[in-house]
């Protein structure tokens, strides 16, 4: 991030701050005395903040040459307020203006908040707001002699606003031809807008809250801290319809802090910021989660930003994945009221993709009774798993140790009567934390189905069945759906085992009776022979 030069009081000589009043070809009136009733003008030349200081002086005249390293900026809106009660046609009026300059702080001016006073002096809006166009210019014409407050009330996307500043019409000028001092009624100012950046990341490599039902992922939005003009800070995350943010009373799933400095500085819900959610209704398919930092929070952010040029505002949101989808998520960051009135800075989109798997159960015997087989679902980071080594819920998984997944509070999934059961959402195997991964990377996912109950009269699967969920569609919005045919083999692979129960017992009894009868007959015959021998 570009190093920022921070100034809480950004006022230059001549009551002008946070801008450039450049030496150039302005025309100074010959008369050294202000002529009452004379009308003047104020031309705002809007530029991007250059990387290095220009070194140009501030005197209110128009530049004839381009500003080195600065590009004109269109789309910035300015509102002009006349400070009443200070008469610049009198010496006393200039003394009063100088006294006001000593107490004026641009940070106290909140753009568009309807403020009516600066110091002890009422202010009156001078005409309608004007937006820079062409070469980044906005012109306020037909201005009475007065002290004016200039407020940037609309800022283009990607920029933080210039600080509010005060300027007099007219200003003392030196005539470049005669070198005489006089008054210039056509004043030119050159406020510059620093670039503003914001980024977003997603963490979905592992379930961020395994104890909670559903798969949790976390988004983090990071935004710069403007060196000037930060009178508001709003972050809006528009969630995809497949995601849900479920708030509790303290919005504990949202974490706001300032990071990047020597230490992270936390902000507290209700003390430093509020959370706004849309009212659900017909046609509402997205959910805007808005974090709006209040005055106390802005003070914390400014202090942290002043302490470290690398500090950034962090907003982290925990959400639940409810259904399969290919999600590209973008957040909006408004670093000022002028940005709220103008346009937000958009983060680059981050991707998180979710599909599912359908088990298609069948039997080697062709039976139609396909319900009741039960499976568990696991994942590892490697392509081999023994089916038994499991780590604690939530992981992290390894190449050989699996994490068991819970879906809708269940860990065992039975097939229906048609032999089918669909499990999801499942994170794509080849996309982790918003980035592509390949087999062998720690974030890659190999999914496994482990059968715990087979079909009736069938054998369990001897080993878990592996699969992956990858983007196989040519469409960028159609999620991947995997079908896994799984066949159960009949008990003992269909071979008939010998058995001794049932009908076999009857035959054993019959055989026993026959053997006994035969033995009795033999014994009787032997006795008959003995009698015949004895009486012969």
From TrEMBL:
The keyword Transmembrane applies. GO terms for biological process: carbohydrate metabolic process. It holds the Pfam family Gram_pos_anchor. Residues 41-193 form the Gram-positive pilin subunit D1 N-terminal domain. Keywords: Cell wall, Membrane, Peptidoglycan-anchor, Secreted, Signal, Transmembrane, Transmembrane helix. Residues 1-30 form the signal peptide. Residues 492-531 form the Gram-positive cocci surface proteins LPxTG domain. InterPro entries: Fim_isopep_form_D2_dom, FM1-like, GramPos_pilinD1_N, Ig-like_fold, LPXTG_anchor, TAT_signal. The chain crosses the membrane at residues 506-524. The keyword Acyltransferase does not apply. This is Isopeptide-forming domain-containing fimbrial protein. It comes from Litorihabitans aurantiacus.
């Amino acid at each position: 991030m570009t190093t920022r030069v921070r100034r809480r009081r950004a006022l230059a000589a001549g009551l002008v701050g946070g801008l450039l009043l450049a030496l150039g070809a302005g025309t100074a009136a010959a008369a050294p005395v202000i002529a009452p009733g004379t009308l003047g003008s104020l031309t705002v030349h809007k530029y991007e903040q250059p990387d290095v200081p220009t070194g140009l002086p501030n005197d209110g005249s128009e530049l004839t040459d381009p500003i080195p390293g600065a590009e004109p900026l269109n789309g910035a809106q300015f509102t002009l307020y006349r400070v009443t009660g200070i008469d610049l046609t009198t010496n006393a009026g200039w003394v009063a203006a100088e006294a006001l300059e000593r107490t004026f702080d641009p940070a106290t001016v909140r753009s568009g908040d309807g403020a009516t006073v600066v110091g002890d002096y009422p202010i009156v809006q001078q005409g309608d707001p004007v937006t820079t166009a062409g070469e980044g210019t906005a012109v306020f014409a037909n201005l009475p002699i007065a002290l004016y407050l200039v407020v940037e009330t609309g800022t283009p996307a990607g920029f933080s606003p210039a600080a509010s500043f005060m300027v007099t019409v007219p200003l003392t000028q030196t005539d470049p031809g005669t070198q005489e001092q006089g008054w210039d009624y056509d004043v030119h100012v050159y406020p510059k807008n620093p670039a503003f950046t914001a980024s977003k990341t997603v963490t979905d490599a592992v379930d961020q809250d395994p104890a909670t039902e559903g798969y949790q992922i976390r988004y983090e939005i990071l935004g710069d801290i403007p060196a000037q003009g930060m009178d508001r800070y709003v972050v809006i995350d528009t969630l995809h319809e497949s995601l849900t943010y479920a708030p509790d009373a303290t919005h504990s799933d949202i974490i706001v802090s300032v990071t990047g400095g020597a230490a992270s500085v936390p902000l507290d819900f209700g003390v430093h910021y509020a959370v706004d959610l849309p009212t659900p209704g017909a046609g509402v398919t997205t959910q805007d989660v808005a974090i709006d930092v209040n005055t106390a929070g802005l003070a914390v952010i400014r202090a942290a930003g002043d302490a470290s040029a690398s500090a950034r505002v962090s907003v982290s949101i925990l959400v639940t994945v409810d259904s399969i989808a290919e999600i590209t998520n973008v957040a909006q960051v408004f670093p000022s009221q002028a940005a709220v009135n103008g346009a937000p800075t958009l983060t680059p989109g981050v991707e998180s993709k979710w599909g599912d798997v359908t088990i298609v159960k069948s039997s080697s015997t062709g039976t139609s009774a396909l319900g009741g087989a039960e499976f568990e679902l696991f994942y590892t980071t490697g392509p081999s798993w023994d089916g038994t080594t499991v780590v604690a819920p939530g992981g992290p998984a390894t190449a050989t140790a699996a994490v068991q997944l819970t879906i809708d509070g269940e860990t065992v999934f039975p097939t229906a009567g048609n032999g089918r059961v669909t499990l999801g959402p499942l994170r794509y195997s080849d996309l982790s934390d918003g980035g592509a991964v390949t087999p062998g990377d720690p974030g890659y996912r190999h999914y496994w189905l482990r059968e715990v109950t087979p079909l009736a009269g069938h054998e369990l699967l001897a080993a878990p069945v592996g699969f992956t969920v990858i983007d196989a569609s040519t469409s960028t919005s159609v999620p991947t759906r995997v079908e896994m045919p799984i066949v159960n083999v009949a008990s003992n692979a269909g071979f008939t085992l010998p058995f001794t129960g049932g009908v076999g017992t009857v035959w054993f009894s019959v055989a026993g009776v026959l053997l006994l009868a035969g033995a009795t007959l033999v014994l009787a015959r032997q006795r008959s022979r003995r009698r015949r021998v004895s009486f012969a």
